[in-house]
Amino acid sequence: MQNPFELIKQTFSPTTVYALVGESGTGKSFRSKLLAEQYNINAIIDDGLLIQDEKIIAGHSAKREKTYMGAVRAALFDDKEHRDSVAKVLKKSKIKKILILGTSEKMVMKIAMRLQLPQPSKIIHIEDIATQEEIEKAAKSRHVEGKHVIPVPSIEVKKSYPQIFSNSMHDFFSKGLFKKKSGKGKLLEKSIVQPEFSKKGRVEISEAALTQMVMHCVSECSPDVKVKKISIKTDSHGYRLVVTIDVPFGTQLTGKVHKLQQYIIDKIETFTGILIEEVSIVIDKITKETVADNSEEEKKRPPLMHLSLAHNHESD
User: Fold this and answer.
1) What is the per-residue DSSP string for 119-173?
2) pLDDT, tens digit, for every residue of 193-225?
3) Which of 99, 217, 220, 241 has a 20 to 30 A CA-CA distance from 161?
4) How far apart are CA 34 and CA 190, in angstroms?
């Protein structure tokens, strides 16, 4: 008979979360089952799906979406009904270990938070488990041929998403080793699909369009704030924005600025699906509505305040 204290410990012990991070099209889904076998993980979150023991048990695949933006939002569990339904199944299933796939560390942390899971205790990058040649081959398969992988057997995909199913592939897994199509070990099957959005090409957002979105966000959130300049930088983690503003005299700076930062992040991520890594607000000048000060000395004066916000998730 099992020790009652051990039973209580197992019942209330939190799920251990692992994450696999890599840019889009680098082979994360392809290698996720091999990685899960290596760490004895029996559940995977990938592109909007909750997969357990090679079965789709909750969610819907981002790969069924007709547009790229729709796919990004599905992968991020942006829709409340979608994320709540998956979170409910996660609680009921009492999964001990789970692997979350994402294009950045921020993305996997956001998914974990939205699905009411602990933050990842171990983050693995695709470069840690795949060679540069393998990553380039995966990128060609994705961007040139439009092929995507769902880490479940073909029967699961044919049942749920027959319209996008293309083919299946197999790998052998040996503990601690990744072997392909040969050797001894467990045979793992994965499905190849071709989503509608991959046939239509990728959607990119120009800096001009993003600038217009920021201007609109500022005018909605703080109509009395004047935008002087917007700078946009991108890297593999997402977009970094620097917004230079003038604010009216008497403004409660800290509260207003943080509210504006969060508003810009939330609105742009919700409507575009892109990830905003950081919004920095530079307060250039405190203005008086009745007095216009255009002196040369005023123009040369350095900014009064510079506040930055790396995206926090409390408001989601």
Assistant:
1) PPSEEEEHHHHS-HHHHHHHHHHHHTT--EEESS-HHHHHHH-TTTEEEEEEEEE
2) 556 555 545 556 778 888 999 999 999 988 889
3) 99
4) 11
